[in-house]
Amino acid sequence: MSTEKKEKRILLVGRSGCGKTTLADTITHGSATYHKTQAITRVGNFIDTPGEYMENPNYYRGIILHAYDADLVIFMIPAGDETTIFPPSFGNSLNREVIGVVSKVDTGKDVEAPRRNLKLAGATKIFEISVHDEESLKQLCNYIYS
Ligand SMILES: Nc1nc2c(ncn2[C@@H]2O[C@H](COP(=O)(O)OP(=O)(O)O)[C@@H](O)[C@H]2O)c(=O)[nH]1
Ligand SMILES: [Mg+2]
């Protein structure tokens, strides 16, 4: 029997600009190269979705389909965002483990509303991260890859 770990695939979902591509790049390559995500792309183990996928209900089924290819789904809301694009319990329709990430906590902005909205969306566990805080990324990665 192989002890080799299967590479986990992670679907990243969140509004444009919340930090999905930066997180995927930073974890995969150690730094971010800016590009606007126009289509679903693979970065390392991450399936990166354009923000438009969650901003337009016509694309929800795209998210649902891509969740089938993922082992884990991450819903992301940046610190300071008081609104949510996630319908209540949206995570429950994905048939995958869904965790929440509050991004950009280095800005010092409010994390309580994002935490609340991530929970309402169906995230079972919530991490607070900043791409400028390696320790926060380590904690997230430890959970993702454990
Ligand atoms: N302060 C701060 N800015 C971040 C962080 N992560 C991403 N950003 C910035 O947020 C902007 C949008 O990031 P991007 O990854 O393109 O968002 P996406 O549309 O969700 O893929 C970029 O200018 C990033 O540099 C973070 O942890 N802290
Ligand atoms: Mg992007």
Automatic annotation (TrEMBL):
SUPFAM superfamilies found in the cross-reference section: P-loop containing nucleoside triphosphate hydrolases (SSF52540)
InterPro entries: EutP_PduV, P-loop_NTPase
GO biological process: biogenic amine metabolic process
Sample GO molecular function, one term: ATP binding
Family (UniProt): Belongs to the EutP/PduV family.
Species for this entry: Veillonella dispar ATCC 17748
Alphabetized PANTHER family for the sequence: PROTEIN YOEF
A Pfam match: PduV-EutP
UniProt keyword terms in alphabetical order: Nucleotide-binding
Gene that encodes it: eutP
The protein's name in its UniProt record: Ethanolamine utilization protein, EutP
Gene3D superfamilies, per the entry: P-loop containing nucleotide triphosphate hydrolases (3.40.50.300)
Domain of life: Bacteria
